[in-house]
Amino acid sequence: METEGIVVAGARRGHPAPDERFVVWSITIAFLFVLCADTLFGFVFRPYLDIANLDETTVLDVLTLIFAGSPERLPLDSWEPMMTAFTWLHTHGMGRQGTENVYDAVFFTQHVKFQYPLTSLLPMELLSAVGLLHLRVYAMINLLLVIATAGGMALLMLDLAGRLGLDRPLRDTTARWALAGLGVLATLCFYPIVKAFAVGQMQVWLNAAFVFASLCFFRNRRVMAGALLGGSTLIKPQLSLFVLWALLRREWGLVLGWVAVVVPGFAAAVALYGFGPSIRYLDVLAFLGQHGESYYSNQTVNGLLNRLLHNGANHLSTMGDDTEWRGSAFAPYHPLVHVATLASGVAFMLFGLLWRIGGGERDRMTSFLAAAVCFTLGSPISWVPHYGVLLPAFAYLLFVLLDGARWDGPGRDRGRSLRLLLILSVLFAIASNDFFQPLSQLADTTFNVLQSYLFFTSLALLGLLVTTAGPLRKGAPR
After folding, report:
1. Which of 10, 149, 209, 442 reaches 20 to 30 Å from 157, CA-CA?
2. In-domain check, residue 89
3. What's the pLDDT at 97?
4. C-beta of residue 378 within 8 angstroms of C-beta of residue 460
5. In this predicted model, what pLDDT tens digit does every residue of 231-267 receive, in sequence order?
6. Does any domain span residue 342?
7. What's the total number of domains in the chain?
C-alpha cells in the first residue's frame, strides 16, 4: 500500500507511473510501426510485390490527373456505371410509365455494373443541379473525404483513449498530438482506404461516413450516427442491417437518425425515377447473390469459393489476342457457391445482429464494430475498399489491449494482452498493404485460397473483438 501511494503521489507531481509510461511508449512504438511497415512494403519491397500491367493506378497517378493531368483519364470504378445509369435515366425520361427499366437496360442488357440503388444517384442530381457534375469534381470530393477520414480517425483515437480510461497517461500535449498523428498516419497507410481513392470508388464516402458514425456513436450522439449510417444505406443497402441492430438494442436515437435520412431519400428517388425501377434493384441483389465475383478483389466466402473452383475470371480473361480482366463479367452460376454464399451471409448477419444484445456501453461499442465487420464479411461481394470499416475496429482493439497490458492485477493477464497486441500489429500490417499482385501468380492453382488473405485477416480481427473486448474489469487504475 505504501509503494502504491508513492507511485500515485509521484504521478500527481508530474512523474508518470509505470503503467502510464507503458501506454506512452506503446503509442510511440505503434506510430513507428505503422510508418516502418508502410515504408517497408510500400517502397522497399514494392518492386517485388508488383506485377506489370495488373494494376497501374496509384494515389500519385490520381493526384497528378486531378491537379495537372487530363480529367478524362481519371479512374472510374464507381463513377462510370453510375454516370451511365444517370445519363440513361435522363435520356429515356425519369419515372415515365412504359419506359424500359434502367436496370434491365444498363445492368442486364448493356452489362454495365451499376450495382447501386437509385438513391445512390441523388448526390449526382445535386451536383448536376449546381453545375458541378464533372470527373475532376468527383475526384476532388473523394480526396477531401479521405482527408476528412484521416481527421476523423485522429479524433476517434483521442476519444477512445478517454473512453477506455487511458486519457491520464496521454494528457500531455505532445502525447496527444502523437496519438492524433497515429490516427492520421494509420488512415493514409491503410490499403483499403487508399485503394478506394486510387480507383475512384464511392466507397470513399462510405468509409468516411463509418469513421464519423463510430465517433458519434462513441460520443453518445446516436441520432447523428444513425443519420450517417442512413446516408450510407442510400448508397449501399446492406448497411440497413444497422437499423435492425439498433432496434434489437432499443437504440432509438440511432433508429430515428437512420429513418430521418432514408425515408426522405427513398421518397426523393421514387419521385424522380418511379417506384417500379427503385424496387427492381432487388432483382440485381438477387443476381449478385446467385453469381458473385471470382475476381481476386472480392474478399468474401463467395469470392474464395469461386476462385477455388476456378469458376470465372480470377484476374485475367483472354478474348482473342486481348488479355485483360473483363469488368462486365460475373462468375457463372454454381449451386455450391450459391448455397455457401447464402449460408455464410445469414450466419454473419445473425452473428452481427445478435452478439451482445445486452450489456453496458463498452459492450455496445464492441458490438457496433463487430456488426460492421460481420456485415462486410457476409456480403456476396465485398471489394478491398469495403474493408475500410476495419480501421475503427483496429483503433478500438489497440486501446482495449493496452488497457489490459499496462498493469497486473486480479483477473488480468498482462502477458496475454502483450501477445494479442503483437497479433493485432501483424493483422494491421497485413490488412494495410497490397499483397494481391504476387499472390495472383497462384490464381490457377489450389493455393489461390491465399488470395483471400484480407478475408482471413478480417475474420481474425473479428475473433479478437469477440474474445478480448469484454467489459472493463473492476480495479483497473485510472
Report:
1. 10
2. yes
3. 53
4. no
5. 999 999 999 999 999 999 999 999 999 999 999 999 9
6. yes
7. 1
Question: What single DSSP character describes residue 442?
Answer: G
**pLDDT of 45 higher than 80:** no
Long-range Cβ contact pairs of 275-281 (< 8 A, separation 24 or more): 276/101, 277/95, 277/101, 277/102, 277/103, 277/118, 278/117, 278/118, 278/119, 280/101, 280/102, 280/103, 280/104, 281/103, 281/117, 281/118, 281/237
User: Does residue 6 sit within a domain?
Assistant: no
What sign has the CA pseudo-torsion 14, 398, 258, 267? Answer: positive
Residues forming a β-bridge with 324: 317
Higher pLDDT, 41 or 230: 230
What is d(CA 398, CA 158) in angstroms, rounded to the nearest whole number? 12
Report the alpha-carbon distance of residue 363 to residue 430 in Å, rounded.
27
**pLDDT at residue 319, rounded to an integer:** 41
Q: Which domain holds residue 377?
A: 18-468
Q: Is the pLDDT of residue 54 over 60?
A: no
CB 436 within 8 A of CB 451: yes
- State yes or no: pLDDT of 55 exceeds 60: no
Give the integer Cα–Cα distance in Å for 201 and 12.
50
* Residue 103 burial by Cβ neighbours in a 10 Å radius (0-12, 13-18, 19+): buried
317-319 vs 322-324, strand pairing mode: antiparallel
Bridge partners of 472, per DSSP, are none
Residue partners of 224: CB distance under 8 A and separation at least 6: 213, 216, 257
Within a domain: 343: yes
Q: Are 224 and 195 in contact (CB under 8 A)?
A: no
- Please give the model's pTM, rounded to 2 decimal places: 0.87
Range scoring the smallest mean pLDDT among 9-13, 184-188, 265-269, 437-441: 9-13
User: What are φ and ψ of residue 319, in 5° steps?
Assistant: -130, 100
Phi, psi (degrees; rounded to nearest 5) at 46: -55, -40
Residue 351, pLDDT score: 96
